[in-house]
């Protein structure tokens, strides 16, 4: 069987203030701003992409900072915690760093065979740092956080579900995930070759309140696929399984299809190419506002409507 799903491609969330979002993800977590563009469906809103040095699939955290919007609410039918992978030896460093920035955290906690810290960004989005020695991906040396301690990319994502059976069936029967661990109503699935960046945790939470979208809530999770051909194969598999994926949409840096999983969470399947160096040099990623060609005639108007930010 051909591998159609490799793991997590990106996670996209809603945010409030644009500058505070930049300050948290580049300043506190030390991620690189790899693309500064706009929401293609709402061009008066930024779309920020953070990741490793090149914005590799499996490292990309993205945000739509809408400004003064109400906070969301964690609950059932939502991706509640996005976990990043860090080296085991870095855990005390991160505890000190979070304390330095006055960011409350819980932990170190234990889950499966791993140790993790749990906290929230400035909008209340759930974040975890999972300490492990399994991640061989290179860290980005940003000159602020030692490379030996830096975030390597995603580790996993937690989906809170009122019922898990149909979501589990989607992951295993259609999306090529495998159940690898179970603990306290948490089911861990892995895709592709496995390891950090390929884990999905499905948390059975029948007594949760229903999640509400707003600042600090995840809009969707995207799964990585190799190319346009594998994406079409997944699209066909989803249709055969009774789902209604969208047509392929061109997001400039990848191609996408979207659909709702049975618990209501928005899933995307995104191609690994063409990547973020398609419209600016790799050394200059994220420095300038990039617009899709159909918005270029409106650049002056769009730039005037967007808040100024400092990287």
From TrEMBL:
UniProt-listed Gene3D superfamilies: 2,3-Dihydroxybiphenyl 1,2-Dioxygenase, domain 1 (3.10.180.10)
InterPro entries named among the record's database cross-references: Extradiol_RC_dioxygenase, Glyas_Bleomycin-R_OHBP_Dase, Glyas_Fos-R_dOase_dom, VOC_core
A GO MF term: dioxygenase activity
Pfam families: Glyoxalase (PF00903)
CDD domains: PcpA_C_like, PcpA_N_like
UniProt entry keywords in alphabetical sequence: Dioxygenase, Oxidoreductase
Domain VOC residue range list: 7-132, 153-272
Presence of keyword Heme: no
PANTHER family assigned: RING-CLEAVING DIOXYGENASE MHQE-RELATED
Designated name of the protein: Ring-cleaving dioxygenase
Organism: Nibrella saemangeumensis
């Amino acid at each position: 069987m051909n591998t159609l799903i490799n793991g997590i491609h990106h996670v996209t969330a809603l945010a409030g203030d644009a500058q505070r979002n930049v300050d948290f993800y580049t300043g506190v977590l030390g991620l690189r701003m790899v693309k500064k563009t706009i929401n293609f469906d709402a061009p008066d809103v930024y779309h920020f992409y953070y990741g490793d040095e090149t914005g590799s699939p499996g490292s990309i955290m993205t945000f739509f900072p809408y400004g003064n919007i109400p906070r969301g609410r964690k609950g059932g039918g939502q991706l509640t915690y996005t976990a990043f992978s860090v080296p085991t030896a870095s855990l005390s460093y991160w505890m000190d760093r979070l304390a330095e920035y006055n960011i409350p955290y819980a932990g170190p906690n234990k889950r499966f065979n791993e140790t993790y810290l749990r906290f929230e960004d400035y909008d209340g989005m759930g974040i975890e740092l999972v300490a492990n020695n399994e991640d061989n991906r290179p860290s980005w040396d940003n000159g602020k956080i030692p490379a030996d301690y830096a975030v390597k990319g995603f580790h996993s994502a937690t989906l809170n579900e009122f019922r898990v059976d149909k979501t589990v069936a989607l992951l295993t029967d259609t999306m090529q995930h495998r159940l690898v661990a179970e603990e306290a109503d948490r089911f861990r699935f892995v895709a592709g070759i496995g390891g950090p960046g390929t884990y999905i945790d499905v948390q059975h939470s029948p007594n949760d309140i229903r999640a509400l979208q707003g600042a600090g809530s995840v809009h969707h999770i995207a799964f990585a696929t190799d190319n346009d051909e594998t994406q079409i194969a997944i699209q066909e598999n989803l249709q055969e399984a009774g789902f209604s994926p969208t047509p392929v949409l061109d997001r400039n840096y990848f191609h996408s299809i979207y659909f709702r999983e049975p618990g209501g969470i928005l899933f995307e399947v995104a191609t690994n190419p063409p990547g973020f160096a398609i419209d600016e040099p790799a050394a200059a990623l994220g420095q300038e506002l990039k617009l899709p060609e159909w918005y270029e005639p409106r650049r002056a108007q769009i730039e005037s409507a967007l808040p100024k930010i400092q990287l």
